[in-house]
Amino acid sequence: xxxxxxxxxxxxxxxxxxxxxxxxxxxxxxxxxxxxxxxxxxxxxxxxxxxxxxxxxxxxxxxxxxxxxxxxxxxxxxxxxxxxxxxxxxxxxxxxxxxxxxxxxxxxxxxxxxxxxxxxxxxxxxxxxxxxxxxxxxxxxxxxxxxxxxxxxxxxxxxxxxxxxxxxxxxxxxxxxxxxxxxxxxxxxxxxxxxxxxxxxxxxxxxxxxxxxxxxxxxxxxxxxxxxxxxxxxxxxxxxxxxxxxxxxxxxxxxxxxxxxxxxxxxxxxxxxxxxxxxxxxxxxxxxxxxxxxxxxxxxxxxxxxxxxxxxxxxxxxxxxxxxxxxxxxxxxxxxxxxxxxxxxxxxxxxxxxxxxxxxxxxxxxxxxxxxxxxxxxxxxxxxxxxxxxxxxxxxxxxxxxxxxxxxxxxxxxx
Length: 415
Description:
The model is unreliable at 398-415 (pLDDT under 50). The protein has 415 residues and is an alpha/beta fold. A five-stranded parallel beta sheet has the order 2-3-4-1-5, with helices on both faces. The chain has a four-stranded antiparallel beta sheet with strand order 6-7-9-8. The protein is globular and about 65 Å long. The protein contains 16 helices and eleven strands. A hairpin with a 2-residue loop joins strand 6 (312-314) and strand 7 (317-321). It has helices spanning 3-7, 32-46, 64-76, 96-107, 109-112, 118-131, 149-162, 185-191, 203-217, 225-237, 242-258, 266-285, 290-305, 322-335, 343-355, 381-393, and strands spanning 53-57, 83-89, 135-141, 167-174, 193-197, 312-314, 317-321, 359-363, 373-377, 403-404, 410-411. The protein folds into three domains: 3-17 and 201-285, Helicase, Ruva Protein, domain 3 (Orthogonal Bundle); 32-197, P-loop containing nucleotide triphosphate hydrolases (Rossmann fold), CATH 3.40.50.300; 290-411, Orthogonal Bundle (Arc Repressor Mutant, subunit A), CATH 1.10.10.10.
């Protein structure tokens, strides 16, 4: 396709933005109950009252962020002088200082340029809230990736005890239900929160979500209902991930456009599914906490090269003993000068990797080294390891700037 063709009117797309996972439609299907719960959490702030903190959980692509932003847009259209809201993407603002700086930047932009420390920012926010009984609602998207989460939670909850008027309400969004268990008891006890879990979409729900997007995003009759059902079914099998289905849909359209077609055929849909399948695990990897990434790194290493014990091969599938993975994980952690998590946390990490669809876990039959779990990586080990190299070590390939010794300890990296 020539540049001049790219600049012309598309025969496929009517509005590409509508197909983006960041696009918020006027109506969010199948999330009325969840939206109402978020509205209930914010409603007290609109009346100048402190509300309970709310924590929202759910897999990637279940609509958590879209629903939160939908409600925030509703709030922005309601005249009120009490509620002040900050939406914080914690993947960008990933420390207590950066979160406080974002709040200052949202509401006191002149002050934000003065180069103060975290304590100064805290005191200025507290004074600002107290001035006229404001209620500050802080929405922390992907809250679990904040590096000093204990300090952040303690700081924000402590503010309610320190100020005489007004208050702070936290709305946290996370892919991991268990992340709070990593909090210090003093932070956890101060939260006083309610919880909201977003269930995965089923295949029919994903189909209707896609149908809505197609009506505005594509030209008329570009894609058939049969292909939409195929895409929806695939996304359902990948954990009910609507974002994944939108990626397939967009790529199908792009491929049809590149091939000079005016309609998406089954060939484009199938090719887009294959490409998107290789991407989905790497999108999920980016959201994992550090030690869970290290566990996955150990699994990828052992799957790729074998380990101390003989690995079990069933057809083309390779299974690794759970105990060996834990030993390799401890070795990698030691090589990075990090303290490995306990076996209890290790088992939680495995359960969450199973839930995310990255690994499969099986109980071994009696007689195979006693009773243990067998772990299978569901994605190519080399690609998985390379993605983790980028996430953990900042290198573009698995063999660029560090190497692993026989014990799994990673050399050439500082903690």
